[in-house]
Design brief:
InterPro entries: Cyclophilin-like_dom_sf, Cyclophilin-type_PPIase_CS, Cyclophilin-type_PPIase_dom, Cyclophilin_A-like, WD40/YVTN_repeat-like_dom_sf, WD40_repeat_dom_sf, WD40_rpt. Its EC number is 5.2.1.8. It catalyses: [protein]-peptidylproline (omega=180) = [protein]-peptidylproline (omega=0). This is peptidylprolyl isomerase. There is one protein chain. By secondary structure, this protein is mainly beta. It has 2 domains: about 35-435, 7 Propeller (Methylamine Dehydrogenase, Chain H); about 470-630, Beta Barrel (Cyclophilin), CATH 2.40.100. Helix content is about 15%, strand content about 30%. Strand 4 and strand 5 (about 110-115) form a beta hairpin. Residues about 1-45 and about 400-405 have low confidence and may be disordered.
Length: about 625
Amino acid sequence: MYSARNQHASAARAGAAGGMKRARNEEADDEEGEEGAPAVVEADGPAVTRSVLSSSARQALSALPSCEMYEKSYMHRDAVTHIVVTPSDFVVTASRDGQLKFWKKMQTGIEFIKHFKAHLTPFAGLACSTDGGLLASTAADKGLKVFDVLSFDMINWLKLDYTPGVCEWISGPQAARAVLAVADADAPDIRLYDGVSAEGEVLSTVKVHSAPALVMRLNPKFDAVISADARGVIEYWSPSGEHSLPKGLSFRYKTETHLYEVAKCKAKPTSLCVSADGKHFALTASDLKVRIFSFLSGNTRRTYDDGPDALHELQKTGDDAYRLEAFDFGRRMAVEREYRAAAGAPPSNVLFDETGAFVIYASVVGIKVIALETSTLVRLLGKVENTERFTHLALFQGRARISATMISSGGKITQDDDPTLLCCAFKKSRFFLFSTREPMEPEGDDAVGRDVFNEKPSKEDLQLAQREAKGPLPKMACINTSYGEVHVKLFPDECPKTVENFSTHARNGYYDGVLFHRVIKGFMVQTGDPLGDGTGGTSIWGHEFEDEFHRSLRHDRPYTLSMANAGPNTNGSQFFVTTAPTTWLDNKHTVFGRVVQGTDVVQGIEKVKTDKTDRPLADIKIISIVCMEN
């Protein structure tokens, strides 16, 4: 039996080890910043201002995606965790169920090519060679697979005797063999393989870490590999020979650098990216800071804090263009806490644009584009996409690659360029494309919207599509009873399914003439059962549906509108309005509205005489319910 009373009756209730000696190039000077200025360490967090950019930076910014809304999204069958854009103009996406998809970048947008069931477990690493010809993937199933990107075929499959972590191609396009570095997920060793050889022979083992390497990137301009381990220690090593230190560094000891900074903060690295000119690399870590390093000096040039304190400060003092409504910000922070606590969630990464003038990374408020020369937030993508927490990013900047020299000389960007930012999102089986074009409005019954259903949609996708097709859910309702009108505010953003069920029943006349079948003074009034005895009623889908609890919606005050149920996830059509705080019902019944007018009507119903089963002696009915958008 549906009951909110049963609960009422029972309510009583590193530092890293020492500095490694470094070979010093006596002729090498410290890295210089923009406009010939010395490199500096910035204070935490980008200023949210509109400082003037140089002409070359403005030109580089025009070659990046600019629209605040994503243009298209495409599906996998499970949450998308990795995206790679290859130098050969292909896109590869990977999902938590081990599926791999190849896409071709067209003049505008992308086109699906081929699908592989690559692994039995989620991906640990996905890496493309510097020439864009080879792709490698690793996973906890101990498989290492290599694909020919241009022919879309799997060309090698090694079964390893250890659990692999991240991987990276560490040989250039002119090298005699394609060397792939694979980190051990449980040990500090990094093993090197000939990626196209089926023998599986370990060419050499790199032993520069004292903990498993979590991130690894080749710096081809300086023939060096940068890796960082679970203790936060950053190492440089040569991809060939004895894997010694690269030549030309401007420091003798690591203690002269900031390469221990992440370890000192007791943080773990989560992503690593190298600029196109090799002079800088960016690293994100579990302390939610984005650090920009000079490669030659090993010192931080910029540090951007994206932690909770910095975000709250931005809400108070930042530019209005980048602030969120208080309610929206609170909801996003709740999602952020869930994201940070989720096991196996894809970490947010950081990217450089092709000129090295900007860094791009996803945050709570959207995807940030920061100009390094002024350390300012110059663009914020996806701020309006408040249902997505974007995570892993990949950037395509078109066939006509823009060099720094061309930009400085005022070279014109051709119309064929189609800069596109591709993004994963937390718990989403889609990936999203931001471009310079706003999404097209679908026209006609056969029109395809921006969310492409290239896979058989799940129940959740179908329900979301149906809701969007019907237009926005109502935010207000007037319950007209035989005792008077009760106006309620609804919460469609927090509990869309519950509001959809209630408003659809109301629109269809399902509640017309239904009795208030249970009234308990000092507790609540209950209705919504067409049988009138508390045993009937169903949802608009013909079956029970799940609870929608939200941390901001509690039974902490009277006149709360909530769903009656017979246990977890058994919602149908019955609902009740409380007449006192009933906090013991929190996380047991879905709160989906509050009375904003007509509390006297609720009080009048509450005071009627009832029998031993709490049924009113005189009938009190719902005459009709009218829902409104505002």
